[in-house]
Design brief:
Helices cover 35% and strands 21% of the residues. It has helices at 24-31, 35-42, 55-65, 68-76, 84-91, 93-101, 146-154, 172-177, 191-203, 255-262, 264-267, 288-296, 314-321, 328-344, 384-395, 442-448, 457-468, 472-488, and strands at 105-108, 111-114, 117-121, 124-128, 160-166, 181-188, 210-214, 226-231, 268-282, 301-312, 349-360, 367-372, 413-418, 425-429, 438-440. The strands form 4 sheets. An 8-stranded mixed β-sheet has the order 7-6-5-8-9-11-10-12, sandwiched between helices. Strand 6 (181-188), helix 9 and strand 7 form a beta-alpha-beta unit. The structure holds S-adenosylmethionine (SAM).
Length: 493
């Protein structure tokens, strides 16, 4: 196998041709061309970490495995020419013809070569421009990067009525949302991206519920409101005005992010959630949570949770976005221009994370919290939606427990500890990367020890009145306060 030219083989500038590809998904499933299947072929910990310079090693592993999923991996993630008969064996001859018709595959001497990547993600597949292409055009349709997978894995998956995916690109988040939303709108500025996203929605059998519109952020959805908004906006701070639209967030990196937060109140229902993956600038004295709040304004109540995955040193961040042209002097000058621009905007580094904003009823006190959690490298994190739901429900000052309900600890709780000196409690969870231990007030810690499902709230109130020697009214206030403490810390079922 020889590495082919990854620049020439590209879906043409208009985008792929709308072509039904009904054979494809069943064939991909049969061949095992899934996230897990590809990881097993390539021996990498996670798909977004494929490296251009490691292609020879990946191809060696494909040859060793000698299977349909290895051939499809070489074709669709590594940009490799593969003998036509092998791809026909995996997809059928008619399948190869249909992909050529769609402009997604080229027939070349001795084989076929893909003109786009095909990324597996949570049982769906999306075509994009090539991740390994060293030259990216301004109309580049963004591959599934680390950011795309992080958002796909952390978006709350509660059933909703209407979802909006801004900056949809390949349409991946719109397609995933269509599994738990009655209807979805995807929006992008790039008409070429919309050709990809429409084809991808058809490929995954969700087009009746998903619609794609062209325009800037909320412009194509005037007056419409949604229960879930997902977005992977362009966020790279850059002094380079010509950087492709899928990446640049202006010199400060936050032009698009600020605009989308400013419009959020008009488009998010009360109780609705925004999930946004982003690299955000670290600016001393102006934490990202505060900047989000300032863009949102004060006319609605908001719950803000920032999932912070890691910091990215400034120099490393720049190298990831500044192409090396082979001229060290020009490279150094450009690098310094970036550093100077970052200094002028107070940017000391970058962080990667997911920002969640829940719109709350006007009388809710809301919250702002940063959780330092591990990057979700091992698939979907089901914790995020329940966290937000607990924060909203138990943070509501008007919340009252039903007297005949029997509160119990949630299955996520692995252990409860009590510090005999401070009398505070500590809850530990089964997934410590995502649920760091929670400190509980002394009263909440004692109450947690009684929640074995046998006692009603009325029993707990009587027990507390006896223990404290107080009347039932005082005891019921205490029980309510402790249950709220447990609930907000995600300890209750
Ligand atoms: C980083 S890509 C994300 C693609 C995809 N959602 C994902 O997560 O893989 C950003 C996308 O935003 C689009 N975009 C940039 N600015 C936009 C704007 N102001 N309004 C709508 N789309 C925009 C770009 O064309 C690009 O497709």
């Amino acid at each position: 196998m020889r590495l082919e030219n990854l620049v020439t083989h590209r879906v043409d500038s208009a985008g792929p041709r709308p072509t039904p590809l009904p054979f494809l998904v069943p064939r991909l499933e049969e061949a095992g061309y899934t996230e897990q299947g590809v990881l097993a072929v390539l021996g990498v910990p996670d798909l977004p970490f494929l490296q251009f310079r490691e292609i020879p090693g990946y191809l060696w592993r494909c040859r060793q495995e000698n299977s349909a999923r290895a051939d499809l991996t070489a074709l669709w993630l590594l940009g490799q020419k593969v003998p036509r008969n092998r791809i026909e064996a995996a997809l059928t001859g008619a399948g190869v013809e249909a992909l050529v018709q769609a402009g997604l595959l080229s027939v070349v001497p001795d084989g076929v070569i893909a003109r786009a990547d095909l990324h597996p993600c949570q049982g769906t597949w999306v075509f994009t421009d090539r991740v390994m292409a060293q030259v990216k055009y301004p109309s580049h349709v963004y591959e599934l990067g680390e950011d795309s997978y992080m958002l796909a894995r952390t978006t709350p998956r509660t059933p909703v009525r209407r979802a909006l995916d801004l900056c949809t690109g390949s349409g991946i988040h719109a397609i995933l949302a269509s599994r738990h939303a009655e209807s979805v709108v995807g929006v992008d500025l790039n008409p070429r991206a919309l050709r990809f996203s429409r084809l991808n929605a058809t490929l995954n059998g969700c087009s009746p519920r998903v619609e794609f519109r062209e325009g800037n952020l909320y412009e194509p959805v005037p007056g419409e409101t949604f229960d879930l908004i997902t977005v992977n906006p362009p966020f790279v701070p850059t002094p380079d005005r010509s950087m492709a639209a899928y990446r640049t967030g202006g010199e400060g990196g936050e032009d698009v992010v600020a605009e989308l937060f400013q419009g959020l109140e008009s488009h998010l229902e009360i109780g609705g959630t925004l999930a946004m993956v982003t690299n955000y600038p670290l600016i001393p004295g102006r934490p990202f949570l505060e900047r989000m709040r300032s863009w949102l304004g004060t006319s609605s109540a908001w719950g803000l949770t920032l999932l912070h995955f890691s910091d990215v040193p400034q120099g490393y961040f720049i190298t990831r976005h500044l192409p090396y042209t082979g001229d060290p002097e020009a490279y150094t000058a450009e690098f310094e221009r970036y550093l100077e621009s970052y200094r002028a905007h107070g940017i000391e580094g970058m962080a990667i994370g997911v920002a969640l904003a829940r719109r709350l009823r006007a009388d809710h006190p809301g919250w702002s919290e940063e959780r330092r959690v591990g990057m979700p490298l091992h698939g979907v994190v089901p914790t995020v939606g329940p966290w937000l739901d607990d924060r909203e429900r138990f943070g509501d000052p008007s919340w009252q427990p039903e007297l005949d309900s029997r509160p119990v600890l949630g299955p996520q709780v692995a252990g409860l500890w009590k510090d005999l000196l401070s009398r505070h409690g500590k809850a530990e969870f089964h997934d410590p990367t995502w649920n760091q231990p929670a400190w509980l007030s002394p009263g909440a810690a004692d109450l947690a020890g009684l929640l074995d499902g046998t006692r009603t709230v009325a029993d707990l109130v009587r027990h507390t009145a006896d223990g404290l020697g107080c009347n039932l009214e005082t005891a019921s206030l205490k029980v309510r306060e402790w249950l709220r403490d447990l609930g907000e810390n995600h300890v209750l079922n």
